[in-house]
Design goal:
Elements lengths: L4 H10 L6 H12 L6 H8 L8 H13 L4 E6 L2 E5 L6 E5 L5 E4 L22 E4 L2 H4 L1
Parallel strand pairs: 3-5
Antiparallel strand pairs: 1-2, 3-4
Amino acid sequence: MKKSNEWMMDYLREHNIKPSTIRIKVLEFLLNNRIHPTVDEIYKSLIEDIPTLSKTSIYNTLDLFSEKGVVKILALCEKELRYDIDTNSHGHFKCEKCGKVYDFPLEGNLIIKDELEGFKINSENIHLYGICKKCNE
């Protein structure tokens, strides 16, 4: 879904983030490419539009977005962080063949919180791994 620059600027301000060209471009990429991208994927997509762009700028932007609740950071592998613009509760399935990450809805209470009485849960993540439907055919 294509969002206007004005909408994205307002969205960033609502999350107490000062809009900048890089922040708007990263947000636009995340909204238009729901692929759970890595920093490299975002960088390669935006470098033509912003020739002065650095990976550090993207890391800093995504760290800020995470801190302000705009994205969730997914650590699906030890050496790979991915970013999800959908911050609602849902699970992730990563195909071990093609590497794509798929969202799936969560129903009910999957965690027996009675077993964690006295614990403070900051986030819940459900990650599944296997072969996706497309690769399985």
